[in-house]
Amino acid sequence: MEYSISLFGYNLNCEISVDNEKLTIEISEENQRVLKQYLLRVLPKYGRETSSASSLQLLLELAIDAEKILDGRMSEPKLKLPYEFQPEIKEKLIEAAHLQEISATQLLVLLIEKKYYEVTG
Questions:
Q1: What is the 8-class DSSP label of residue 72?
Q2: Contact criterion met (CB below 8 Å) for 97 and 13
Q3: Selected residue with higher pLDDT from 63 and 110
Q4: SS3 label, residue 30
Q5: Residue 7: how many CB atoms within 10 A of its CB?
Q6: Which residues fall within 8 angstroms of residue 47, CB to CB, at 6 or more apart?
Q7: How many CB atoms sit inside 10 A of residue 74's CB?
């Protein structure tokens, strides 16, 4: 079953399955790369030092520690875009974001990140 989960203030799709009463959550490699980039971008704002060489495991440990200290959830800074969309594009963006339970800005960032990794490999 496909499901959207929030990890450290970031929504991503995963595959959930149950086999013999054992729950498994699988996150695609692409979504793991996107999550890693998100953590690299956000963790420094919470006082955690990261570098592009940081492993996903280290980033997850830092994120868990940051949220324990925060006693809440991390979040990505809001981004205001310096341009307007055509009304029909804006409506599609808002609807798609609503269906994924994220903001339109977060959806744009996600789409840009996915396209970036497609192009750069």
A1: S
A2: no
A3: 63
A4: helix
A5: 19
A6: 66
A7: 19
